[in-house]
TrEMBL record:
Swiss-Prot/TrEMBL catalytic activity: a uridine in RNA = a pseudouridine in RNA
GO molecular function, one term: catalytic activity, acting on RNA
Membership in a protein family: Belongs to the pseudouridine synthase RluA family.
Entry function: Responsible for synthesis of pseudouridine from uracil.
Matches recorded under SUPFAM superfamilies: Alpha-L RNA-binding motif, Pseudouridine synthase
Organism: Amycolatopsis antarctica
Protein known as: Pseudouridine synthase
């Protein structure tokens, strides 16, 4: 166990203990609530409950458990995962559904880095042990094209490119209803959901998040939409379209209609990383890669087209 002393800054005055301490420590509110429930959070020397309010200038004393042992990469073949391109610096992956990019606590399914290890593909050793070579991520339930760094130089260059937003990230999403206007930009900050720690939401004071979209095909109950991401927040497309009341079809976590999802035989969000373009880290030439729709997403479109 380790103890930390944290003065409460002015910016957190009046905030709940769980929300404020989560921001200060980079933990989830659930984790902070568990610490408070076990008596490991003191506010000015007295045990603090998760819903107590912070006061600027107060002193928080937090007893933290020792960090868990690092998650290990397990070399395991991944069914359906394809390497679209590989050279000395990069590997371009077509990620199937149900596959996480790298191991994490609580995830027991297949991973991209585990699949690459099983295939004998060497990747960069930069980054945390469980996500070496990873320069961006896709949700486990999102399919499509992504890049992994194979050389240390490529890792550095690509991490900077994603940070500086010089990567062209193109997605296709089937969203419920008909967005109006049919072409536009969603500029709304995103942060952890205030009540449900497992998802995200548009939140005042969240991280700046910008999504550009254009409807390319309209059906009775849904619209196929081409999307360009200016930023790359976790669940960004799903959160932004849910906030517009046009959630991704099949995305029950963010308010999609379960009846429509069943009719289209979808067990996950209709969201696909369609294209990825960037300056190649070796020589700066522009390269672009695309991924075709997997069977479940293509089948859902066929059903909608047959009904139109």
């Amino acid at each position: 166990m380790s103890a930390r002393m944290l003065p409460v800054p002015d910016g957190l005055d009046g905030m709940r203990v769980d929300a404020g301490l989560a921001k200060m420590l980079g933990l989830s509110r659930t984790a902070v609530a568990e610490l408070a429930a076990s008596g490991d959070v003191l506010l000015d020397g007295r045990p603090a409950g998760k819903s107590d309010r912070l006061a600027a200038g107060g002193l928080l004393e937090v007893t933290l458990p020792e960090p868990a042992q690092a998650v290990q990469v397990v070399a395991e073949p991944v069914e359906g995962m394809r390497v679209l391109h590989s050279d000395d610096d990069i590997a371009i992956i077509d990620k199937p559904v149900g596959v996480a990019v790298h191991p994490s606590p609580g995830w027991t399914g297949p991973t991209v880095v585990g699949g690459l290890a099983a295939a004998g593909l060497r990747i960069s050793t930069s980054g945390a042990a469980e996500r070496q070579g990873v320069v961006h991520r896709l949700d486990a339930g999102t399919t499509g094209v992504m890049v992994v760094a194979k050389s240390e130089h490529a890792y550095t260059v690509l991490k900077r490119a994603f940070k500086e937003r010089t990567v062209d990230k193109g997605y296709h999403a089937l969203v419920q209803g008909h967005p109006d206007p049919t072409r536009g930009t969603i500029d709304a900050p995103i942060d952890r959901h205030p009540r449900h720690d497992y998802k995200f939401a548009v939140v005042a004071g969240g991280r700046p998040s910008v999504t550009h979209y254009e409807v390319t095909e309209a059906f009775r109950a849904a619209s196929l939409t081409a999307i360009k991401l200016e930023t790359g927040r976790t669940h960004q497309i799903r959160v932004h379209f849910s906030a517009l009341k046009h959630p991704c079809v099949g995305d029950l976590t963010y308010g999609a209609d379960p009846v429509l999802a069943r009719r289209l035989a979808l067990s996950r969000q209709w969201l696909h990383a369609r294209s990825l373009g960037f300056a190649h880290p070796a020589d700066g030439r522009w390269v672009e890669f695309t991924s075709e729709y997997p069977d479940d997403l293509a089948s859902a479109l066929e059903i909608l087209r047959a009904e139109s």
